[in-house]
Amino acid sequence: MIERAYRTAEALGIPVWCQDEAGPYQAIPQAGPSWQPVGQPAQRPHEYLRGGTATLLTLFRPATGEVRACPVTAAPNAVLHPWLKQEMSAILAAMSPPDPAAPGRRVAEWEWRERSLWALEHLPPVRLLLVWDNLTGHQTPEVLNWLVARGVWPLFTPLGGSWLNLAESVQRIVVQRALAGQHSHSAHELMAWLAAAVAGWNAAPTPFVWGGQRAVRRQRARERRHALAGTGGFTRTPISRPRRPRYQLPMPNGYAHVT
Known about the structure:
The protein has 6 helices and 9 strands. It is of the alpha/beta class.
């Protein structure tokens, strides 16, 4: 369902956003290249000082490359949920009202569970798809009801499948730009560098297209399936087929030729 959203939702006029939390990152010397004179390598202090940590709350739209992020010292539900509601309200306010009859707007086209995670009798048309990690805090009924009531349909990544969340890809780029080879002395300095890196990314954003090596491997795995006698089942390896019955041809001198 997430792959289908990446490939088709934007063409149907349904924005796809990804949310993730990067970090926490410590205020310590970070690995990475640095510009130094020849013969004078960079020196890092060996003392371990507790300078605090910083986490980056990230919203990413792959089709445009836009990043909405907020550096914080910690990311519990009390911090994440209000920030997410604020950003989603701003995104929805800039969108035009949806046509309920348009393709992709029905909830049934994006729902795959037998039991819903929210308690709403009336579901509005889908306005936005949100790719989210499958965490307990992300499945809080209060925030889920708030999102679904406004047409924001969450798509949770499966267990062990957080790589389906493209927010992780842009976070890796932003964090490397902000912290590689740097030595921060406080969490506030870390947060300032992360915010500056996000602003630099949004000055010239790069759209992301779904695909890559993992998607190719998944497609090859689908093609290696072997159907079972025309049914809906399949196997990963081919089933050995019985050979024709063996029979003997009589030959002179009491010998037999087996075919």
